[in-house]
Design brief:
The complex is a heterodimer of chains A (about 450) and B (about 450). With about 450 residues, chain A is an all-alpha fold. Chain A has 15 helices and 2 strands. Helices cover about 75% and strands about 0% of the residues of chain A. In chain A, α1 runs parallel beside α4 and α7 packs antiparallel against α12. Chain B is extended and about 95 Å long. Helix content of chain B is about 60%, strand content about 5%. Chain B has about 450 residues and is mostly helical. Classes of the chains: A mainly alpha (about 450), B mainly alpha (about 450). At the A-B interface, α2, α5, α7, α8 and α9 of A face α3, α10, α11, α12 and α13 of B.
Chain lengths: ~450, ~450
């Protein structure tokens, strides 16, 4: 039975349960809700929850688990039929079986063993679907019947329903923790597998990055190297250029908007600046690769400099523009949070506006601005599309902004795309890079958020 | 000059004004000195300079915005029209079977080219035929096939086929290839030019609305590539993201704002949410890859997986916006409901939520707009494949608009630049619509208590 049909049936049963529970409660109350403990619709919801919730949970668990079980059974079958034992070969054979079964692979002239396995796979899939459908429906009906039997005027239906809703609310809020745990665990597990191939020391401090694993031992550049320092240096270089653009421009616009601009200017300019933040990064990447990079290249040619067409400069400057609204809106917030009395005091002493801003407002807002700065750095370090499209692929250890460098995110995006084998160090290195990226941005974020929060409390 | 006061502070000036200045007689005199005037001038200059920096910063940022949008609009405007060639094709019943015009073996290609060669007088030599063939899109047979399949009565008649020109011809028609250059330096040969001029003279070639861009899927031929498949993929992905992120986000916000006890766990959740909002999006892609693809075994490139990844990514945004909305509802509303005997859940669901709804919706729409433009995490879950079919279910392989833009941006053909820019404009249009909706919603329902 297809999944969607089962879902529809469950929903229908729940709706039926709602109607039945409601009318049964009314009937038990003698046609009026007055003698009931709760309003009739809570009895309806009570029955509907009993009918729908357990069966949905079962359905979810079944669907999460059956793939792995079927896979194991089919692989056993293949192993018996073909006497292949290597796990990699078995996995490959299984992938072929799945493709055969889906019809994605043409069945003409396929290995008869695999064809048989594909038939077996389809059979198991059907069987699993049927069993799941039957079990889930029986469970739903049982729940419905049980809840209906319990409906009587003294049943505290509202409390029961509210307990369930309360639990659901709590589970939703736990999802945030679950996501973090998922990120950390998945990155750590894959990274550990990577570090069995490459020592952590070599990864963190090695100066050579060439992740291509050789097909033959005697090939040129056959030794793959996983020293990530060139990537860190490239990331740092591009992020620095980005911050050199974003911080002055963002901070000065924030100062002007909050201290000088008239209300009307502010109302027009602020949303326009925020448009910059709403533009997708892939658009910035396109802009960097097609407009900014050629511009710098021709500019360099005029000045007699050799500017790479994938220069760090172009990527960094465009990234800086992307971060401007981020810096400016965060700084705007902290500058506005500085109490007016501080400014008035300074004006009273005869200071001009710029002196007040530079010597009173900015020092008072400094922690918040530092926080904004750190958040912006974390943004720049984690930004992917601009650098994938406008920065290079080759890992050069250089601090010359006119040359092409590569970054951590570029490597993550390019090493993994189109690659399906999950046991080569090349693929696994992505997770080590991801882990590094996550940890660095996490530190930046935690420090920044803490600074921003502390600062807010002070003036509130 | 004569009023110049003594430079030294020790010299008391005779004319004193009352008040605060009276206490330090030196001040008045000091303010009149040359040095102080110079100082003042310097201070005012610094003031003007500082102000100018502010204006310059804003001007720079806005200029970049204009440049960005302008360059894309300038590049993409050309893709709204496409060069079309029209010519007569005889749908030979000997080639197309009346019973089964959709048969993939049917050689529509032959019919198209035969028809096209007839267009030229005098008749083309064999080598000229090959040159002429390059003038029309290599997918021209598809157009004839669609025509005949949708109306089998055309078999045996002569139809007027309208098909896109080849991409180089299109670029030249739009003036992006300079035909005055010597042959070796342009992509179009003299022979092609001669045949092209013949078509122009007959009025068989011209610009028309680029319907291909909006109705077809990705293709290796730029003149046949469209964004329809990516658009559907984007809508599906966004739908999954919406269905997952908004209810869960709102529920989490309700719990944290209304029910959560103040303890270490809720503090931890809060720190977590704030951090997740700042985690690089590509890390969410890695999470999706390991959890959804490897662990749960969901299919690669599917809108379902993409939507789930985006949902995890936008969840913090939705939670933070929803919490702010709930927080802005005054406690008196809750107190009144509780005072009338409502349970806490009833107070929240019947009274607080309706009042917080506009704020929550605004936050959700902004989160969704962000998700719509997101690219990097979707590369990780394999939505980067070359897909020429429109996805029909949530588990079909699909691509999405930003990824399509990314893929096209890498293509060397000139015409793809134009198409990429046009796709970007469509994407930006969607974002503008969504963000305007959010702003309107906020304006209309915003309530100050």
């Amino acid at each position: 039975m297809p999944l969607s049909l089962v879902l529809v049936v469950i929903v229908l049963l729940a709706a039926l349960g709602y109607a039945m529970g409601r009318s049964r409660a009314l009937a038990a109350g003698g046609g009026s809700a007055r003698t009931l403990n709760s309003v009739p619709r809570y009895y309806g919801s009570y029955v509907a929850l009993w009918a729908g919730l357990p069966s949905l949970v079962l359905l979810f668990i079944w669907n999460a688990a059956d793939g792995a079980i079927i896979r194991g059974m089919v692989i056993d079958r293949i192993a018996m039929a073909t006497s292949v034992t290597a796990p990699a070969a078995l996995n490959l054979a299984f992938a072929n079986v799945v493709n055969l079964a889906n019809g994605a692979l043409n069945s003409d002239g396929a290995d008869p063993n695999l064809l048989a396995a594909a038939g077996y796979y389809n059979h198991l899939q059907d069987l699993s679907g049927q069993i799941a459908g039957a079990l889930v429906l029986v469970l739903a009906l049982c729940g419905l019947a049980y809840a209906l039997r319990r409906v009587r005027p003294a049943l505290r239906a509202r409390n029961a329903v509210e307990r369930v809703v309360h639990t659901l609310l709590m589970l939703s809020s736990l999802l945030a923790i679950l996501t973090t745990v998922g990120i950390v665990l998945s990155l750590i597990f894959e990274s550990i597998r990577f570090f069995t191939h490459v020592a952590p020391w070599d990864f963190l401090f090695g100066l050579q990055w060439s992740p291509q694993t050789a097909l033959r031992a005697d090939q040129v550049g056959s030794s793959s190297a996983f020293g990530a320092v060139p990537l860190f240096a490239g990331t740092l270089l591009i992020a620095t250029i980005a911050m050199l653009v974003a911080v002055p421009v963002g901070l000065m616009s924030a100062i002007y908007l909050s201290e000088y601009a008239s209300r009307r200017t502010r109302a027009v300019v602020k949303p326009l600046l925020e448009v910059l933040a709403g533009i997708p990064t892939v658009v910035y990447g396109f802009f960097a690769a097609l407009t900014v990079a050629p511009f710098f290249r021709s500019l360099g040619q005029m000045a007699g400099l050799d500017v790479s067409s994938e220069s760090a400069l172009a990527a960094g400057i465009v990234m800086g523009i992307m971060i401007v609204p981020f810096v400016s809106s965060l700084s705007d917030d902290v500058i506005n949070a500085v109490p007016q009395s501080l400014r008035d005091g300074s004006y009273g002493m005869g200071a001009t506006r710029s002196e007040t801003i530079r010597q009173v407002v900015l020092p008072a807002a400094l922690p918040g601005i530092v926080g904004a700065f750190l958040l912006a750095v974390s943004r720049a370090v984690g930004e992917t599309m601009i650098v994938v499209m406008a920065a290079g692929l080759a890992a050069n250890l250089t601090f010359n902004p006119l040359e092409a460098v590569t970054t951590v995110t570029v490597q993550i995006a390019t090493l993994l795309v189109g690659d399906q084998e999950f046991d080569s160090p090349k693929t696994l290195s992505v997770f080590a890079l991801g882990l590094t990226l996550f940890l660095v941005t996490l530190c930046l974020n935690v420090i920044a958020l803490r600074i921003v929060q502390k600062y807010r409390e002070k003036y509130d | 000059m004569t009023e110049r006061p003594p430079a030294l502070p020790a010299g008391p000036a005779g004319t004193q004004t009352a008040g605060a200045q009276g206490k330090s007689p030196a001040l008045t005199s000091r303010h009149m000195s040359d040095a102080s005037r110079a100082r003042l001038k310097k201070r005012y200059a610094a003031e003007a300079r500082f102000r100018f920096y502010g204006v310059a910063a804003i001007t720079l940022a806005l200029a970049m915005l204009v440049l960005l949008i302008g360059s894309i609009a300038w590049r993409g405007a050309g893709a709204l029209v496409e060069t079309w060639v029209s010519f007569d094709v005889y749908v030979d019943p000997a080639v197309v079977s009346a019973d089964d015009p959709a048969n993939p073996q049917t050689n529509y290609r032959k019919l198209v080219y035969e028809g096209f060669y007839q267009q030229f007088t005098p008749a083309l030599s064999r080598s000229d035929q090959r040159v002429a063939g390059s003038l029309i899109s290599s997918g021209a047979d598809r157009f004839l096939r669609n025509m005949v399949v949708s109306d089998p009565a055309l078999i045996g008649t002569t139809v007027r086929l309208r098909t896109p020109a080849g991409d180089d011809i299109d670029q030249m028609r739009k003036g992006r290839i300079d035909r005055s250059l010597p042959q070796a330096e342009r992509k179009i040969t003299d022979r092609q030019l001669a045949l092209y001029d013949q078509l122009v003279a007959d009025g068989d070639i011209g610009l028309g609305f680029n319907s291909v861009l909006f109705t077809s899927t990705d293709s290796n031929e730029p003149e046949l590539a469209g964004i329809f498949g990516a658009l559907i993929g984007s809508l599906m992905t966004l739908g999954v993201c919406l269905v997952c992120a908004v209810p869960v986000g709102v529920a989490a916000a309700i719990y944290l704002e209304e029910f959560a006890p103040k303890n270490r766990i809720t503090d931890f959740i809060e720190v977590n949410i704030n951090n997740l909002a700042a985690v690089p999006s590509i890390v969410f892609g890695l999470l999706g890859l390991t959890v959804f693809l490897q662990f749960f075994g969901l299919p690669r490139s599917a809108p379902l997986v993409g939507g789930l990844v985006l949902a995890l990514m936008t969840l913090p945004t939705v939670i933070i916006a929803s919490r702010a909305a709930i927080k802005s509802v005054p406690p008196s509303i809750r107190d009144a409901a509780l005072g009338l005997g409502a349970s806490r859940l009833q107070a929240v669901f019947h009274h607080v939520l309706p009042l917080a709804m506009p704020g929550m919706l605004t936050g959700s729409i902004i989160g969704m707009a962000h998700a719509l433009g997101e690219t990097a995490p979707l590369l990780m879950v394999g939505m980067v494949a070359f897909i020429t079919s429109v996805p029909s279910s949530l588990t079909d392989a699909a691509t999405i608009l930003p990824v399509q833009i990314y893929l096209w941006a890498d293509r060397p053909e000139r015409m793809f630049i134009e198409r990429t820019s046009a796709a970007i404009m469509v994407l930006l249009l969607f974002l503008v619509v969504m963000n305007s909706a959010a702003i309107l919603l906020r304006k209309k329902f915003e309530r100050r208590w």
